[in-house]
Design brief:
Length: 193
């Protein structure tokens, strides 16, 4: 075997092994199928831009036909906040559903940035979080109607993207008026079995 034949043989062997591992990893569910949508940066594709005037954002939400506003109370050192961003808020299906129904803003519970609350009062983010909504632990997901009234609150990270979708549907469909989310979630789990 001359040098050219050895090179061709080695190249085809590497190609064969690469294809073998690709097919095997997809068969075992290790690889991501090419038709699945890739996760998107939540800072670009989930959260809306704001100047911190939530009273004005209510007007925008009404004009855009949204159901309301969702606030994500977070802090930098919170591992559960990061998990929500890395495994839930980055999912294209989650982003599409929530962007269709809500304006979505993060609020830093340690933040000194001045914001305007739903009543038009100026205060720091940390005062807004603690004084107005008693947020001490993070994350806290709060949903507000188009009048700026809180309609649902969820403390902690959801188990996964599906549970977060159920939380959104719970608010959008108005089920929060009739039952707590824990019961709604339990009923959804039972019906999906």
């Amino acid at each position: 075997m001359d040098i050219t034949e050895k090179y061709c043989y080695a190249t085809s062997e590497r190609l064969y092994m690469s294809l073998y591992w690709l097919v095997l990893s997809m068969a075992l569910g290790i690889g991501m199928p090419v038709w699945a949508e890739a996760p998107q940066d939540p800072h670009l594709s989930f959260f809306d831009q704001t100047l911190g005037d939530f009273d004005d954002e209510l007007v925008v939400a009404r004009e855009k036909g949204k159901q309301g506003i969702m606030l994500f109370f977070e802090m930098d050192e919170c591992p559960f906040c990061h998990r929500m961003k890395e495994t839930v808020f980055n999912q294209p299906e989650v982003q599409a559903y929530f962007k269709e129904n809500f304006l979505i803003f993060p609020v830093d519970i340690d933040g000194d940035v001045i914001i305007t609350d739903f009543e038009g009062n100026s205060l720091k983010q940390k005062e807004f979080a603690f004084r107005d909504y008693r947020v001490r632990a993070t994350p806290v997901l709060m949903f507000f109607d188009l009048d700026g009234k809180p309609v649902a609150r969820y403390t902690g990270a959801t188990a996964d993207a599906q549970e977060f979708m159920w939380l959104g549907q719970y608010v959008v469909d108005g089920v929060y008026k009739d039952m707590p989310f824990t019961r709604y979630k339990r009923e959804r789990r039972q019906s999906s079995r």
